[in-house]
## 1
Amino acid sequence: MTVSDMDRAVEFYSALTFQKISDAEVLGDEFEHLEGVFGARMRIVRMRLGNEILELTQYLAPPGRPVPVDSRSNDLWFQHIAIVVRDMDQAFERLRALKVQFVSTAPQTLPPSIKAAAGIRAFYFRDPDQHNLEIIYFPPGKGDPRWQEKSDKLFLGIDHTAIGISDTDASLKFYRDLLGLRKAGESENFGTEQEHLNQVFGAHLHITGMRSDAGPGIEFLEYLTPRDGRSRPADTHANDIVHWQTTILTNDVDLLAKKLREVHMRFVSPGVVIMQDKAGFSKGALVSDPDGHDVLLIQK
């Protein structure tokens, strides 16, 4: 995600027990082309929680725009990461002590009527840049079995990133048929608990979980009601604070880019970009999904 103040962001995520594992400034033609931002100079900090990594990017030049102040959970630029917690009540009290901005009214327990998600507890909040985040608790029998392992840690890792979408079939064609992820599950979520979790009156969602062989999942959030979520502005760029990009590792980024070109998917980068050592990967391409969420395809 793009942040406006790296030191503030690192302090915030450190309070959620993320550990900083790298901190570098980068610039040059390859980064400008990859991210579609001319004259870019970026500070990139990678932070680990459990087995997962969150990458924070501050554009030292040129700075972008803040997140729209009236953003809602059903807007199509919505994206969050779901941070798994061992104990929801303790985690909520930790967030209260940090004085985070609430999105949800309070932690919500999804009811038995939503069979696939029954007993899951969740809470939405925001970081200092207004990015949406979720803490989530999986009861026994729900979620990845590793979230049930004994641990003295309160914040365990990142289960998935969730994205607002307009059409599940279109997103499946992109993430499943083109990128090769598999559908791991789906549910239809509605009721007062879902409304107060998302802070959207009348929220009724079709949720689809996508997985690869390793790493966090990608969760589609299609609002069946209300249908008034706004599209991502066409002039959004990677230096705007609303920007997220989900990194997908592939063995052949050229072949994957060719497939995407053939079906006229939108590329942010001009194509596959050869990267220098500081990037941590040899080749990359930034592409947009059907709703404008950016996906960074990389090859080691």
Note: Residues 79-225 form a domain with the 2,3-Dihydroxybiphenyl 1,2-Dioxygenase; domain 1 fold (CATH 3.10.180.10).
## 2
Amino acid sequence: MKDRQGKMKTTIVIPTYNEYENLPLLVERIFALPMDNLHLLIVDDNSPDGTGKLADELAVRYDNRIKCMHRSGKLGLGTAYNQGFRMAMADGADYIGQMDADFSHPIDKIPVMAAALKDCDVVIGSRYVKGGKLDESWPFYRKWLSGFGNFYARAILGLSIRDVTGGFKLWKRETLEAMPLDRIKANGYMFQVEMNYVAAKLGFKFIEIPIYFRERMAGTSKMNLAISREAATRTWALRRMYKDLKPFK
């Protein structure tokens, strides 16, 4: 929903679970960007550290440019984004973004991604295109696992996207409206792969913007064995699940 000056409304969806240390500075830096009509939607999974309550306080402080969705417990990344996307669209967003709350995604790239979205349907902040990079402090095995995970999904699904597992994206409203969100069931980081695969099957155009993916500033990683197992098994299932989808663009 454009504002009175005709600026597109951009809403960034940020799932949180125990991100109390990161959230205030994250919000401050996002709203310092040279962008008009920029809003945030915090989707909190009943964080025991008080992140949800803090998000409500920040919403008041920032004149309701922040909205908060409070969920009953730790229900997963995929459902957080799925519900967040729907709420953002219902609230009139033209561009809908997604990013982590831990500063691993470079905030300064949001305006660059918004500008690129004018020429495509989805913009990905990519670690695996020329100019993209992983944190130098990561040990070799983490870099290898990340790179192999991308290669594995790309090879099985036949995707030309270089970074299929990354969670830093900006979607056009019309793209998400055309996506069968009720069929997206992945609930870990596999959610990113499933969304990319479905969008590609439907014929949507991607642009990848190189980013530097850094280690989180505070808190602990949400990656666990169950998420890794889901990624290994669900990748193969996606081809069967979405064999009926045809490009409409």
Note: Residues 12 and 47 are 19 Å apart (CA to CA).
